[in-house]
Design goal:
The complex is a heterodimer of chains A (441) and B (172).
Chain A: H1 2-8, E1 41-44, E2 49-50, H2 56-72, E3 76-78, H3 97-102, E4 107-116, E5 119-128, E6 133-134, E7 139-143, H4 148-164, E8 172-180, E9 187-194, E10 201-202, E11 210-215, E12 221-226, E13 233-238, E14 243-246, E15 254-260, E16 266-273, E17 276-283, E18 289-291, E19 299-304, E20 310-315, E21 322-327, E22 330-335, E23 342-348, E24 354-361, E25 364-371, E26 378-379, E27 386-391, E28 397-403, E29 411-417, E30 424-426, E31 431-440
Parallel strand pairs in A: 1-3, 1-4, 2-4
Antiparallel strand pairs in A: 4-5, 5-6, 5-7, 8-9, 8-31, 9-10, 11-12, 12-13, 13-14, 15-16, 16-17, 17-18, 19-20, 20-21, 21-22, 23-24, 24-25, 25-26, 27-28, 28-29, 29-30
Chain B: H1 2-17, H2 53-61, E1 63-65, H3 75-90, E2 94-101, H4 108-128, E3 136-142, H5 153-159, E4 161-168
Parallel strand pairs in B: 2-3
Antiparallel strand pairs in B: 1-4, 2-4
The chains are: A mainly beta (441), B alpha+beta (172).
Chain lengths: 441, 172
């Protein structure tokens, strides 16, 4: 993985000779996500042009991944290739806008792939068909052939961002728990995958029970809880080397539910002493700890605000699990959840404007979002057991785990828009739970 | 050779009896050599041997159950724990790990903390009855280790439990 990252650092951004056309705000090709898109925008992605021998197949595959990314958002609808009138046979040739207008493709993505010396170069352009102009500038990405999916995701992120005005989330990874076996003999190992379920890589062997991995802000480290020592203890893993170590702390004391502060240096987690579980913070470098809550109740599932100044967490100090916000240095906490039922697993959105949570009410589980003061609560899902939301890097999509009912029950990952639309299952090789969505790479 | 065969058989018996609790710590595996005090005609270490962990598990009762979201001990639970106290007093060369568990109707982190509350209730009770805390420790598995797998109260009620796992006296 390091290798891919390194080679993608060599990404080239380069303008084609045509003058850059930037679509004005409110131009024809603009999806305002906040308004709630009901009718997806029709677009076309003809096969990319293979510009060197052997690049043909990759060119097709990359175009398909771009289309899967865009269509998968629910904001775009692909005009099927069978309907295309024009073929794109040369990346440099002028686009026949009339042919794309005729099939009502409002946006067009053209691209080309060449390979030489063990590297591939992917270039692309985005067109506003009805305006007859290019949207943004042509770009190219270079990398090793095994990183082709990442390059496709990068293209899709650009298309998404140029049309919605927001950053994308396709070139991102998710760390999660891969599950196998029946409920009473379930084996769990840490795994990381692309956001769409491709390129699964296992990070632990499955001998020790592992729970709830959490990416650091830069995606280089993962915190998780492991029973390797016999007790649940917080561990930290370097993604690049797949080396992990236990965080300092007392032997024989349970620590769990860790999460990084945005600075990547501080970790918040729960520590159990006797019957009491409280939230603590640790400086990962020095090992110095600080207790942030001290109520005799259960305080757990802490999550930082993106500016690092506040922590949202769950507590049953009122009698049932509810959400609270406190300063990152601890102290007085204010309750923000007041609806029916129990609230848990709060996660601050990367934009800072919302908190996603799990809600349990009347025998059902929901994933929901609310403002950081608890206003405008909105439930996005309902099922026998939905749990543990995590935000896409752009704060528009939430991934979570859904466990099905009964003796044969198993867990899978799903995504849903924060509007509650576009609920989709993420394909994973085995059962999956506890997702944590990493940064846009 | 005969001794080896006998021990192998014993292992098998214990392995079967341990199936209800397959996921206890590996390093707490029962040391058969430590099973002493057998009465005449009773296979040492077997469920008939009152000083055996198998006896503890099957006859004394190794687990107590809890109401939804609760960690208070019912009268029935206290009665079971009184039996555990007696056994632990008599068999002072054994230690115990108390495992706390929750049913699946809850979120993961909360259930870990809830399982800890339950295990701690048991531990506090045993200590209050005179078992040295140095012989006891607890761990929570939250909802990770159900023994019954249906999604109904009949299963949940058995999963909301604290199980006392006997381990051969590890010094220190």
């Amino acid at each position: 993985m390091k290798q891919i990252v390194a080679s993608l650092l060599a990404v080239l951004v380069w303008a084609f000779s045509t003058p850059a056309m930037v679509l004005a705000q409110g131009g024809p090709l603009r999806i305002e996500i906040t308004e709630g898109v009901v009718e997806p925008l029709p677009y076309a992605v003809p096969d990319f042009v293979g510009e060197s021998s052997g690049a043909q197949q990759l060119a097709q595959q990359i175009a398909r991944v771009v289309a899967d990314d865009l269509t998968g958002t629910g904001l775009f609808r692909e005009v099927p290739r069978e309907a295309h009138i024009s073929q794109i046979t040369s990346f440099g040739s002028p686009v026949q806008f009339a042919d794309w207008k005729a099939i009502n493709a409002q946006a067009l993505v053209t691209g080309a792939v060449s390979s030489e010396g063990g590297r591939i170069v992917v270039k692309f352009r985005v067109w506003d068909v009805f305006a007859g102009t290019e949207l943004g500038q042509g770009m190219q990405f270079a990398g090793t052939p095994d990183g082709w999916r990442r390059m496709a995701h990068k293209v899709a992120d650009q298309v998404y961002s140029r049309i919605t005005g927001e950053s994308g989330y396709f070139d991102s990874r998710v760390v999660f728990v891969s599950e196998s076996g029946p409920k009473d003999q379930r084996a769990k190992r840490l795994a990381v995958m692309d956001y769409d379920g491709a390129n699964v890589q296992y990070l632990t062997g499955g001998n020790a029970l592992v729970l709830a991995p959490r990416f650091s802000e830069n995606g280089e480290r993962v915190l998780y809880t492991s029973y390797e020592t016999g007790m649940p203890r917080v561990h930290v893993l370097e993604v690049g080397t797949v080396q992990s170590r236990i965080l300092q702390g007392q032997d024989g004391v349970m620590s769990f539910a860790p999460r990084f502060a945005p600075n990547g240096q501080t970790v918040v987690y729960s520590l159990t002493q006797g019957s009491n579980t409280d939230i603590w913070a640790m400086d990962i470098g020095s090992g110095g700890t600080r207790q942030l809550t001290s109520a005799p109740s259960i305080e757990t599932a802490p999550s930082y605000s993106p500016d690092g100044s506040q922590i949202v967490f769950e507590s049953d100090r009122s009698g049932t699990q509810q959400l609270y916000v406190m300063s990152a240095s601890g102290g007085e906490a204010r309750r923000i959840s007041f609806g029916q039922g129990r609230y848990s697993t709060p996660v601050w959105s990367p934009r800072g404007d919302m908190i996603a949570f799990t809600k349990q009410n009347a025998g059902r589980f929901h994933i929901g979002v609310m403002r950081t003061d608890g206003a405008e609560e909105r439930l996005l899902t309902a099922s026998f057991l939905d749990e543990g939301p995590t935000w896409a890097p752009n704060g528009r999509v939430i991934m979570f785990a859904r466990e099905t009912q009964g003796a044969q029950g198993s867990s899978s990952l799903y995504t849903v828009d924060i509007s509650g639309r576009n609920l989709k299952r993420v394909r994973t090789p085995e059962g999956a739970s506890d997702p944590s969505w990493g940064p846009l790479q | 050779m005969r001794l080896t065969a006998k021990l192998t058989m014993l292992m098998a018996v214990l392995a079967v009896s341990a199936c209800t609790n397959a996921n206890r710590f590996d390093n707490d595996a029962v040391d058969l050599n430590a099973a002493t005090g057998s009465a005449g005609g009773i296979l040492p270490g077997s469920a008939n041997d009152p000083s055996s962990p198998a006896y503890f598990q099957q006859t004394v009762g190794d687990r107590v159950l809890f109401a939804v979201d609760q960690s208070t001990l019912s009268p029935e639970a206290r009665s079971t724990l009184d039996g555990q106290v007696q056994w632990l007093r008599t068999n002072s060369d054994y230690n115990a790990v108390i495992e706390g568990h929750a049913d699946e109707q809850g979120t993961r982190a909360y259930n870990l903390a809830l399982g800890a509350r339950r295990a701690n209730s048991v531990m506090e009770y045993l200590v209050a009855q005179g078992i040295p805390s140095s012989r006891l420790r607890f761990v929570s598995y939250g909802k990770e280790r159900p023994i019954e797998i249906c999604s109904e109260e009949s299963c949940y009620t058995k999963n909301r439990r604290a199980v006392t796992i006997i381990s051969a006296g590890l010094t220190g």
